[in-house]
TrEMBL record:
Listed EC numbers: 1.14.-.-
Keywords: Oxidoreductase, tRNA processing
Listed InterPro entries: Rhodanese-like_dom, Rhodanese-like_dom_sf, Rhodanese_C, TrhO, TRHO_N
Protein name: tRNA uridine(34) hydroxylase
HAMAP family referenced in this protein's UniProt entry, alphabetically: TrhO
Reaction catalysed by this enzyme: uridine(34) in tRNA + AH2 + O2 = 5-hydroxyuridine(34) in tRNA + A + H2O
One of the GO biological process terms: tRNA modification
Limits of the Rhodanese domain: 148-238
Gene3D superfamilies the record matches: 3.30.70.100, Rhodanese-like domain
CDD domains attached to this UniProt entry: RHOD_YceA (cd01518)
Family label: Belongs to the TrhO family.
Amino acid sequence: MNGNHELRNLLSKEELRARLDAETEPRTTLSFYRYARIDDPQAFRDECYARWSELGVLGRIYIATEGINGQLSVPASKLDAFREVLYSVTFLDGTRLNIAIEAEAKSFLKLIVKVRPKIVADGLDDDTFDVTKRGRHLSAREVNELLDREDTLVVDMRNHYESEVGYFRGAIRPEVTNFRDILPVVEELLEDKKDREIVMYCTGGIRCEKASAYYLHRGFERVSMVDGGIIEYARQCEREGLVTKYIGKNFVFDERLGERITEDVVSCCHQCGRPSDRQLDCANTACHILFVQCEACAATYDDCCSAECRDFNRLPEEERAQRTSTILFNGQRYGKAMLRSGKN
């Protein structure tokens, strides 16, 4: 590792945006994860940052003692070099890279590699729980076969603002805002169905990997998961000519916010109720709520979630700055922290 190499970003968001807009080479957006024992997450983090930044990698990667979880974009000409660097790490050798459906989109502005207590915040405190003892991985064909059976339960393990714009037909979609909350909610919902066939799914598989292991640990008998999540399922359906049972968009946690799987629009504008799956963060940065808004309401409200936020955004910059920490929006008081919620 180059000891003089900066191990963090030093540019402003505006500079990063300009740099990305100036790129002429296409990028490939992908994700991967691996549960593994990492004894020194900070040292591993620094090594990853140094080696990946030299390849022009952008994205968001979390590292913990339990493993690594990454969503990133790589210059097309460096994809093979990135794969070689990744696979040079023993426990990452052969890790599947989930290539995004809209792979060439500019999805990230910078490279962020963070050390966290867990790569998926689950709220669990159970030393007897082994995340490696997970449920069965299902191919797209196996998923379709199981979902054709009346006794199969399919469960969306994502947050409600993800499942709002796309889901598997007939899925149980809990109204939760984070993964910590969904584990006990689903367990309670299925408490009397522990002997049923349960198929779980999420974006790329990482949440289901942990959830399936947890439910097996809690006495559920037949727990399986969509291998590689929605991303890999959609790819297999396209490659094998299968009918997709997932409809709508797949929410993604990057600049795109979503990638289309089918042309179905399954959600509605939060302001007028017309069909729309256009998700965005409120343009008022003091609010920044995530919501669904059609093009017509976007023009009316200036990409804001309400008239209050629109009017606030039209104030002079100095007045906005003075009022940001205490202003009241939509009956709720927001500070400068960004709130990601799918409902107004």
